[in-house]
Amino acid sequence: MSFLPVEVIKKKRGGAELTDAEIERFIDGYTRGSIPDYQMSALLMAIFFQGMSHAETLTLTRAMLHSGKVVDLSSVPGFKVDKHSTGGVGDKTSLILGPIVAACGVAVPMISGRGLGHTGGTLDKLESIPGFNIHFSLEQFVRAVREHDICFIGQTPEICPADRKIYALRDVTATVESLPLICASILSKKLAEGIDGLVLDVKFGSGAFMKSAEKAEELALLLMDVARLYGKKVSALLTDMNQPLGRYAGNALEIQECVEIMKNQRHPLTEDTRELSLRLSADMLLLAGQGGTREGAYRIAEETLVSGRALAKFEELCRLHGGRLAELPRAKKSHPVPATQDGFIAAFDTEAVGYTGVLLRAGRARAEDPVDPVAGIEFHRRIGESVKKGETLFTVHGDDETPFPEATKRLQKAVTYSLQKISSPVLILKTLS
Ligand code: URA
Question: Does 81-156+194-326 carry CATH code 3.40.1030.10?
Fold first, then answer.
């Protein structure tokens, strides 16, 4: 029977459930170019308003996954596990948990992204290390995972071409914030890595995609259901992104923070990065069958970090990718941003903080924009802490001082004060497994 995209759009617009064949033919036609952007846009908007059943979401995920290659990791012995974060400001845990888990002998094949919008990306952080090359072929990637238990690369053209096209279209048609579309987009890419297990860090709050914990939990449960239907082991943490994570947001600055944590140089502002990295590592190890319980797996993760084995694995990873960690660059200029009043820090507009990073060129406004490896923001206070007018709340860093005055204004506007004491938010709200 002939396939008419307009009939599929009309069916979804009316709220009916699409068949597997309808979803598969639509995705295939769009990826090959026989279905134009305007029809895909209309279907995306219909899905945005009408939603999708779990069965439809599963089929959409499968169709997007099979629009490209699935990495064949059958030559890598043992369990293969990855982590996916829905994105945040200062979120650098992959750079710590990857080495921890790999140092425990569990393979971590990571296909990561770049920063876009207000959030940072793992590849940009790694590329701030001079010489660090993330452009491996899939064959080199598989060999590296087999030999080192860890490798970080970017999405290659063979992986999920449907997602690349659809994501770009969603970005400009106001259809990003749809749970089935987010779920299919995330899982198609993660499943293409050929993993056995996945730990999800689903963030909520002012710096996250999902502003409320309820919405984040809904997304986490959907992702877990679909991943399980795929036969994958999965767990999820719901984590707070109402304030930046850790001491720094900015590429080389975040590498520095991770290295300091792996060297056991403790600092009050990096305790949240350390704790979240350990909790996510523990879940990854538990999925891989290590530790017996969450507490047992956490102890293994912490021992691996404290013993220096995670740092040794990170240094091995840098050598594997040609990165010269000892030459990590530092900004030539920095500028303090003072508090504008006395009080307790009540809230951060974390998204605005992230966009200030973009202004400083630590992040990118458009996918093709370059980033400045040394630019970024240092944080000096957390929600609930007291501050006096004139004390430093942030420090902006970079080689170019031009954006510093505007960054100062934006950061000052991103802070809300309270005269009453405020309790600090809980970092990990819930674990779902
Ligand atoms: N991250 C993705 O990869 N896709 C989405 O749709 C949202 C976040």
Answer: yes
